[in-house]
Amino acid sequence: MDLVLAGPPGSGKSAVGQLVAARHGAPFLDLDRAIETAAGRPISAIFETEGEAGFRARERAAIERLGPARPRQGDRAAPGGAAPGGAAPIERIIAIGGGAVVDPRNRWLLFRGRRVVTLSAPPGVLLRRLRGGPVRPLLAGRDPVAMLSDLLARRARWYAAGETVDATGPLRSVARRLEELLASPEPRGTSLLRADTVIGRLTIGDGDALPRLLEALAALDARRVACVSEPAAWRLHGERLAAGIANAGLEVVPLLAPGGEAAKTVAAYARLVRAMAAARLERGDPVVAIGGGALGDAAGFAAATYLRGVPLVHVPTTLVAQIDSAIGGKTAIDIPEGKNLVGAFHQPRAVVVDVSTLATLPVRQRRAALGEAIKYGALGDERLLELLERDAASIARGARRAFESGAVAELVERCAWAKVEIVAADEREQAGRLVLNLGHSIGHAIEAAAGYRRILHGEAVAHGLRGALAVGMAVGVTPPERAARIERLLATAGLAQEPPGVGEPEVRAHLARDKKHAGGRLRWVLPTDSGVVVQTDVPDEAVSAGIAAALAGPGGIAASTSGAPRSPRRRGSAASPAASTSGAPR
Ligand SMILES: NC(=O)c1ccc[n+]([C@@H]2O[C@H](COP(=O)([O-])OP(=O)(O)OC[C@H]3O[C@@H](n4cnc5c(N)ncnc54)[C@H](O)[C@@H]3O)[C@@H](O)[C@H]2O)c1
Fold it and tell me: Do residue 168 and residue 24 come from a single domain?
């Protein structure tokens, strides 16, 4: 077993790692020293001449040189001998730099197949240890207490992905605590992120759904659990998770709703809550929703309303659910008068995202979800746009490479975290959350005009994005190069490559009923050169250009704006929070 030691500067990764490696006769590798050796100079000099970006590139190269994790030990004798307690022997200990965890792809390369332990200590302890040591570039020349506290807060969700060892106290005590932990069985799967937020806990990993779910249920002190799912998700993933919950000693009440949108009818909702009542579920018994967005919306609404609200845990199994619907607390069912017209805000206690569940998803479902992912990129995440430009086609196809390279995991993390940040700042959709509506005004209208049958939600959003680009160009906030870039991305993803085949009068009628009106004017979310603005004073001709572009398919923007876009100028009422927070590499 390879052991990765993570943690902030001053947590003692190198000292503890060396000590434990020596005791186990295992090689020790300090990633920062490996970078210095390869560069032929100290890290402070690399920062001086190449900046942080240069250092991070060298760090990535050093991580890639590590190669894949050594195969996990079965019954093969290990060179290092048996670890205490008969747990997997340690083959190699790798201490990583404090900031190596920031990049999602680094975590993917470092954490998969390895045991990850974070050494944690309060800022005061870390600073005492750092005084007198070599200068740490990211803490140099500023208020070190404030800097370190800020660093810890920003990185908490990544450090918390690993198992944790208290790193306060003398070196030998920390090493002993680490060895005690290593004597326990290795956790299953790979955890990439674990964040406790005001809208619930979010975990993201690969093959780690069961341990993370059990952890969430333990935090709720649950003894009985309603596992609500639908046939496909149940057969592929739910049944196994329910068996794992039962094996852990909890009572499981399995409840199946119909697949897809049929889970969101009034009749299906009534059957679900009646089954919950028949099973005598009590107020403390959580609902675990295992499935896509439709199942999550329906189970979430049942959890929001049964006994005036029971705890909810989402285990989203579609790309739409992982990057969008499971996060944010919106639950709903449909009525004949309209989709999602009856609902409630009910925040989940935890959202357990396991990207490995996406491998079984039909191609069309994965592709459609990329419409939402492109939206998140357009909100201002440059790295996400680049990822999509490179990998959207292979992600849609479900190519093994897209999963193995970490592209799917990075995409899910970038989108899901953007949604957490936006929703946490505006839980009830008063202002900032509106930016999530990019592409949705015309998109929803197209989806509705198609009767919610022929066109999937993400496909409609893709058409809607084209419409928003055309509106933005018509009012002069969207530069033509930005519109062209997003158009190319739609083509790469294979989205909106045919006209949606719905009538303009129907789209106009549905647009007039959009929920995002303020004072009779629709609030438009429009792309800028690096994010979005929200604008209410959009003239009718611009709206017409947007509708025409969306209904025309590829090439629709040029046709609808007569090839003469007005020069971009910034207008509007609110810049995208995503544009200001997610654009820079983290
Ligand atoms: N609450 C929100 O904030 C929010 C946001 C976006 C969308 N939504 C809602 O989400 C719904 C769409 O969600 P969706 O796109 O996930 O569709 P979906 O829930 O209908 O699932 C799509 C299909 O995938 C199947 N499936 C689920 N998991 C699978 C897996 N791992 N492998 C193979 N098949 C699997 C399902 O059985 C279904 O047939 C809509 O009802 C929409 O209104 C809600």
Answer: yes
* Alpha carbon of 315 to ligand 1 centroid (Å): 12
Residues 547-577 have pLDDT tens digits of 999 999 998 898 887 644 444 444 444 444 3
pLDDT digits (tens, 9 = 90+) for 140-188: 666 778 888 999 999 999 999 999 999 999 999 999 999 999 999 999 9
CATH number at residue 141: 3.40.50.300
Of the residues 419, 463, 482, 523, which is catalytic? Answer: 419
Residues 18-48: tens digit of each pLDDT:
999 999 999 999 999 999 999 999 999 999 9
- Atom of ligand 1 lying closest to residue 260 CA: 20
What string of DSSP letters covers 352-372? Answer: EEEGGGGGGS-HHHHHHHHHH
Q: Is residue 260 lining ligand 1, measured as CB closer than 6 Å?
A: yes
Boundaries of domain holding 146: 2-187
Active site (annotated) includes residue 429: yes
Q: Above 60 in pLDDT, residue 311?
A: yes
Task: Mark whether 419 is an active-site residue.
Answer: yes
Within a domain: 377 = no
Mean pLDDT of 89-116: 95
How many angstroms is it from 453 CA to the middle of ligand 1? 13
List Cα–Cα distances, 518 to 3, 180, 450, 521, in angstroms.
55, 59, 26, 5
Domain count, the chain: 3
444 is an active site residue? yes
Same domain, 277 and 354: yes
232 lines ligand 1 (CB under 6 A): yes
- Strand 2-6 and strand 115-120: the pairing is parallel
330 is an active site residue: yes
> Are 473 and 514 in a shared domain?
yes
Which tens digits make up the pLDDT trace of 40-85? 999 999 999 999 999 999 999 999 999 888 655 443 333 333 344 4
pTM for the predicted model, two decimal places: 0.92
Q: Ligand 1 atom closest to Cα of 237?
A: 31
Q: Is there a domain that residue 474 lies in?
A: yes
Q: How far is the CA of 250 from the centre of ligand 1 (A)?
A: 27
Same domain for 330 and 436: no
* Residue owning the nearest CA to atom 21 of ligand 1: 292
Largest CA distance in the chain: 76
Q: Which of 327, 361, 395 is where one domain is finished?
A: 361
Estimate the crossing angle of helix 457-475 against helix 440-449, to 10 degrees. 130
With respect to residue 321, please indicate whether it lies within any of the assigned structural domains. Answer: yes
